[in-house]
Amino acid sequence: MVSRNLMGYIRESAESLVQTENDMSSNASPIASHADRRNWQSDGRPIPKIEDGLRYLIGGEIREWSGDQQDVKSCLFFDWNGGIVRPSLGPAPLLDESEALQALEAAQAAWDHGKGKWPTMTVAERIHAVEEFTARMKAVRETVVERMMWEIGKTQADSYKEFDRTVQYIEDSVQALKVLDRNNSGFSIENGFLAQVRRSPFGPTLCMGPYNYPLNETFTTLLPAILMGNPVISKLPRFGQLLNNPLLEAFRDSFPPGVVNIINGRGGTIIPPIIQSGGIELLAFIGSSKTADKLKQYHPQPHRFKCVLSLDAKNLAVVLPDADMKVAVPQIIAGALGFNGQRCTALKIIYVHKSRREELITLLGEAISKMKAGLPWAPGVQLTPVADIEAVNWFRSLIDEAEEMGAKVMNEGGGEFVENFMHPAIVFPVTKEMRLFTVEQFGPIIPIAEYEDVSEVMEYAVESEFGQQVSLFGNDPLVLGPMIDALVNQVSRVNLNTQCQRGPDSFPFTGRKASAEGTLSVADALKRFSIRTLVATDYSEQNRELVNEILKSRSSNFLRTDFMF
Fold it and tell me: pTM for the complete prediction?
């Protein structure tokens, strides 16, 4: 039996794809070519005609690439004339090593051994540049959101949310920096020394964001890095790179040349040379721990290579005997299946008490059956094709292995797929021998394990190689209290009767074990991309006079007492 949601997606996509010109014959190729895409529109909205895809930014210059390219296909697909149509959105550059090293040279020139215009600017001047950029960013909101839907399949509501949250993150970071700078505007007198302690940048920084949040997560590292004075090279994710192109002019015109460099291409080709050069001081990477390990090893002096990493997670939800299912079920659905489970903060395994197992599985199955599948812009859609066209093979391998070891798919149509759309699957019972028990599936699979004693849950948390978050569903304070005390030493965030998540962005976002290195949040990120630095002198009259003269003459942008509001 094919699930209603699966058939619904196929039917809706077929009905929503129409010809706008009559120059395609009825026996046309089932795959829409780059040349053909102008002839198609979907659900009354034309496929984006992206003509800026080959552009990238190095040293304040927007360049047009004429070398190797990749044809960026939409992750969305359509059933037309008995075949699958997957529209081409446009080309993207596959930059080479030479171009990557030019980006590094541009960042190093902007740094100029710490003497560059950007790293020596006042905080107020850097903030002004970022505010100018933000105003220009808001002007391309609709274009970025449209491309996000077509490139990675994020629903329209979530695409707008990602854009708006990114803008809010920038504005909150600016306010946090003002507070930080105010707090550092005075002097300390200790043991006969006079000193001012401020924060200064590290130097050229490499930022690499993930494809599931190609705008927001990219900016959560890039933005605080540049705010604190670091020139940045941003390597765009493999999916979601075209949606960043409308921002190139804003980057170019808002910051001095070389402060922001945006590059595209195969990571294995352009990233190793940059790091191997030793010219990068700090790496900000959001992705897998295996990739992070490789990146670290490329640096010739790993002891001086600073890293800010947000990595894998296998976030656990625990359904206790007294859990309120009216609360737990919607939160688990949202936590496990938001953006089809393609989130590091997604709930990736559910431990349910044996006494509530049947009830939970039934309610989860009913909830999934009501979720609407379809195109990202259709009203009420929650399930869309996954961003990585090949990912369904991975999902199915995990489900097939679990079934071979005795588990079952518990909901109607669970695990059925067409192309890169898969109907969410509830898999039970998941046991230690199965990969679903330990690996991060990063997709629409809800593995469920049952327990009788809470010690079984604690054993899982302790043995897991990841330690990002956990969600606890229950209401007995005498049970929850001791669990909290134990779990805060295994994960970085314990959520009570709510899903795992990153926000609000003012909260610290990090992880233990293999899940993170460093903390990303509005205030914490500013500190991660800078170092406490001080100017000190003995408290003699002559030196006090010298400091006063430097302040009066405003000859230093670091040593000053300006107060920011």
Answer: 0.92
